[in-house]
Amino acid sequence: MTATHRAGHPLPYDTYREAIARETLRFADVVKDADPSTGVPSCPDWTLTDLTQHVGALQRWFCTLLTRLVQEPPRSRDVELGLPEDARDFPGWVAAGVSGVAAVLRDTDPEAPMWVWGEDPHARFWARRMLFETLVHRVDAERAVGLTSDIDPVLAADGVDEFLVNLRHAGIFAPGVTKLRGDGEILAFRSTGVDGGPGEEWRMRLDPDGFRPVGREAEESAPVTAEVRGQAADLLLLLYGRRSYQDSAFEVSGQAAVLDNWFAHTAF
């Protein structure tokens, strides 16, 4: 039986703590021996230096937010980075931050109320967000140096959920999402299980005043206008603009115009 959209219920907090450390070290390992000037195709105009600085800086900023349990949008993203002068030392700087990130996450109550830009106004939001920022950028780095990527299917499915639940709030840095509209179409993303059987399903409804996840039982039985089916890892990269729904990894049905409308407005 196919599981339906989980409405943003995250994995256990400890899962995020452990996965963030693992993914950060994997990222650092990928970039440590690479030419820092290597271009990153999935992040136009960025080099590995830019990508590595971004990953390390974003983690440190998230940790600052968590440490302070900020209650309103911060006016500045300036934090003390301790960034090395030589870009060749950036990978080591990212890896060296793992223990500090782990300490902040360990000392933070995941249930603590705080400001977030997304759906879940608790500290756990930032742990979940940090994981998928790091994981997707690890894949970006691997692609840049010609390595094949693998993503844990459980984490991938949670990443799909995290992306879709929070997307309608992302207009502060992705203004295109504020213009995503429809006429009641329902777009489904369906993952296939590891054994090829049914996995999870997420449905989004596009209305004249915006879009949202489908959650009510009556809506879940409504006909789907367009559907994309694939492995959870592929769906995650698709949603982040790292793949195309026209790739052979996906089975697509329904109205292509609905898919084109979606992806034209949801790029991060």
Order of helices and strands: HHHHHHEEEHEHEH
Low-confidence stretches: 1-5
Specify the structural class.
alpha+beta
Number of distinct beta strands? 5
**What percentage of residues falls in helices of 4 or more residues?**
40-55%
Layout of secondary structure:
Elements: H1 13-31, H2 48-68, H3 90-96, H4 98-107, H5 124-144, H6 153-166, E1 185-192, E2 198-207, E3 210-213, H7 217-220, E4 226-231, H8 232-239, E5 251-254, H9 256-265
Parallel strand pairs: 1-4
Antiparallel strand pairs: 1-2, 2-3, 4-5
Helix pairs in contact: 1-3, 1-4, 1-5, 2-3, 2-5, 6-8
Please characterize this protein's 3D structure.
The chain is globular and about 55 Å long. The chain is of the alpha+beta class and 268 residues long. Helix 1 (13-31) runs antiparallel to helix 4 and helix 2 (48-68) packs antiparallel against helix 5. Residues 1-5 have low confidence and may be disordered. The protein has helices at 13-31, 48-68, 90-96, 98-107, 124-144, 153-166, 217-220, 232-239, 256-265, and strands at 185-192, 198-207, 210-213, 226-231, 251-254. It has a five-stranded mixed beta sheet. The protein folds into two domains: 13-149, dinb family like domain (Four Helix Bundle (Hemerythrin (Met), subunit A)); 167-265, Nonspecific Lipid-transfer Protein, Chain A (2-Layer Sandwich), CATH 3.30.1050.10. The chain contains nine helices and five strands. 43% of the residues lie in helices and 12% in strands. A hairpin with a 2-residue loop joins strand 2 and strand 3.
